Amino acid sequence: MARPKDDDEPKVLSGCERAAVLMMTLGEDAATEVLRHMGPKEVQSLGTAMANLSDITKSEVDAVLADFIRTVDEQTALGVGSDEYIRTVLTSALGADKAGGLINRILLGRNSKGLESLKWMEPRAVAEVIRLEHPQIIAIVLSYLDSDHAADVLGFLPERTRPEVLMRVASLDGIQPAALQELDDILEQQFAGNSNVQASVLGGIKSAANILNFMDPSKENAIIESIREANQDLSQKIEDLMFVFDNLVDVDDRGIQSLLREIDTENLVLALKGADERVKAKFFKNMSKRAGEMLRDDLEVRGPVRLSEVEAAQKEILTIARRMAEDGDIVLGAKGGDEYV
């Protein structure tokens, strides 16, 4: 579904691609030092962009370097770094709700060795490290990890413990330094030496919903059902915040068009086999007449498919949509639906 590129059309590099060009010009030693200061997702994104670079002209490299030099020249040498300054600036920029978790993760995580090291580990390895710990400790760890990473880790934990752990994630209301210190002891690493650190805003219902969004459909449904049996009100709150495939009907037309350029036609056909008619209409509306007719034909000639295949295709498209939302390319709806396909 990728849009063909006109040879005469100027190449527009994304921020990640510009960073990749810069890294390729630095040389191995300097690039290595830069990468040491990045998180695992940043390294993965940048490494992928570097591997995919092709047909970059000298003028494009010069433009990237000129932009970098201009940006550096605009920076001050004050080295402002007080916690209060960081809190004030980020809160002013993002608002208290959005900035809370981010601020605490920055301030708590800058000296972190234990939790940060878990971010670089394979999900199975993380699960092995924490699987015998108290569910509350596991919940704290999952809340600190990125949602997709946490979902993979949760998938490797024993099935009987998953609902309780996720309920604890949803019920977390800040983590006191004493709890973080307990986690330090478990990981046998120093976490943060600042005794004035405030409670970290990790966990909560939204965090639980985000983790479930990345779970395998069969595991996701089993966890939700177990939570519903234990606490129907909490289950409903989590489900209300989950973003499911049918919620794509709430994405604006430009966002759907951007999404269509990123997803595979075969996956789209499978995903739409189990989609609401409004979602199908949303996709058809944002396709060319010819592409829409071809898609309709594919849907008509495709026979019955397994529900697991439909769910897998929808999950893959949602994963792409969430990545694009994180990159600021599209805006997803704020609330999930009640029905599952």
What does this structure look like?
This protein has 20 helices and no strands. With 341 residues, it is an all-alpha fold. The protein folds into three domains: 15-73, no CATH class; 83-241, Flagellar motor switch protein FliG, alpha-alpha superhelical domain (Annexin V, domain 1); 245-326, Annexin V, domain 1 (Orthogonal Bundle), CATH 1.10.220. It starts with 14 loop residues before the first helix and ends in a 15-residue tail after the last helix.
Backbone CA Rg: 22 Å
Query: How many individual domains?
Result: 3
Secondary structure tally: strands: 0
The number of helical segments is 20
Helix content: 55-70%
Mean pLDDT: 74
Find the structural class using helix and strand composition: mainly alpha
What is the CATH C-level name of the largest domain? Mainly Alpha
Short structural summary:
With 341 residues, the protein is mainly α. Helices cover 65% and strands 0% of the residues.
List the helices and strands and how they pair.
Elements: H1 15-26, H2 28-35, H3 40-52, H4 58-73, H5 83-94, H6 96-109, H7 114-119, H8 123-130, H9 135-144, H10 147-156, H11 162-171, H12 177-187, H13 205-213, H14 217-230, H15 232-241, H16 253-260, H17 265-273, H18 277-285, H19 289-301, H20 307-326
Helix pairs in contact: 1-3, 1-4, 5-6, 8-10, 9-10, 9-11, 10-13, 11-13, 11-14, 13-15, 14-15, 17-20
Question: Main traits of this protein?
Answer:
mainly alpha, 341 residues, 3 domains, Annexin V, domain 1, 20 helices
